[in-house]
Write a structure and sequence with these properties.
The protein has helices at about 1-15, 30-45, 50-55, 60-65, 70-85, 105-110, 125-135, 170-175, 220-230; strands at about 95-100, 115-120, 140, 155-160, 180-190, 205, 210, 235-240, 245-250. With about 260 residues, it is an alpha/beta fold. Helix 2 crosses helix 5 (about 70-85).
């Protein structure tokens, strides 16, 4: 058997190929802190939608319990860990979370970074009501991506898991760079397109986006996509241990 394996390896080697062991797709396992963060968040936001349990109106408590599980909170925590590793300054800065949903990222930032001015926006009054309970100190407002006030500038802008829904993700990134301060940073995450199989579903003309996913980036194409859009920006890309693709863009002349 061993000689047969060596013979096969030798045959492929003569043609310039090498046989390697394929690593299994190991899913990241949340830690106890992620479960505690999930339970704490749900305790705050579920009262907002408790009546939906009877009417079936979206979002139902059951949906939120499944959505904001330990895996979701682990992803948000690891994103902040990545920001710390990339020396993204958050403490004491003006920080905007676009599409803040129920405020899980805002809540984690409030606990981790002191003296930070937190802002969040979304296109759902229900989500904003939940976010207000999750992070009472954050300043929240209703806004679509296209309606973000150009007069406002933020030191750190987060857009998590949104670009995969949008019809024109390039225009969205350019729009977001307009509201980042001269020494600020834009933080983006998207699913890994090699694993993402979420269908497009219905189209929302008002927001020029789909309920599901229509854009799929590999780790390599993710980097090239952003480098082409913002060649004058310092670009750092990577993959979180949950499998989500990460990017941080800051001006190249940003002071160290």
């Amino acid at each position: 058997m061993l000689q047969g394996k060596k013979l096969v390896q030798s045959m492929f080697a003569r043609r310039g190929y090498r046989i390697v062991r394929s690593e299994s797709d190991v899913r990241y396992r949340p830690v106890a802190a992620d479960a505690r963060n999930s339970a704490s968040l749900l305790h705050e936001i579920l009262p907002v939608v408790q009546h939906n349990a009877l009417t079936g109106e979206w979002p139902t408590p059951e949906f939120l319990e499944n959505y904001f599980d330990a895996d979701r909170l682990a992803m948000a925590r690891l994103l902040l860990d990545q920001c710390d590793a990339e020396d993204v300054e958050i403490a004491g800065k003006r920080v905007l979370d676009i599409g803040c949903h129920a405020g899980c990222l805002l809540r984690l930032m409030h606990a981790r970074y002191k003296e930070t001015s937190l802002f969040g926006c979304d296109i759902s009054d229900v989500k904003l009501a939940m976010a207000k309970r999750a992070c009472p100190d954050a300043e929240l407002f209703f806004s679509a991506l296209s309606d973000l006030p150009r007069s406002s500038r933020y030191d750190v802008v987060f857009l998590m898991e949104v670009l995969e829904h949008t019809v024109d993700p390039e225009a969205v990134v350019r729009r977001l760079l307009d509201i980042v301060s001269a020494t600020g940073t834009l933080i983006l995450t998207v699913p890994d397109g090699r694993r993402d199989q979420f269908p497009a579903k219905e189209y929302h003309a008002e927001f020029d986006s789909y309920a599901g996913h229509i854009n799929f980036w590999s780790p390599e194409s993710w980097h090239y996509f952003l480098a082409r859009i913002a060649p004058e920006w310092k670009l750092r890309t990577g993959t979180l241990s949950t499998g989500h693709l990460f990017a941080a863009l800051s001006m190249k002349n940003k002071a160290n």
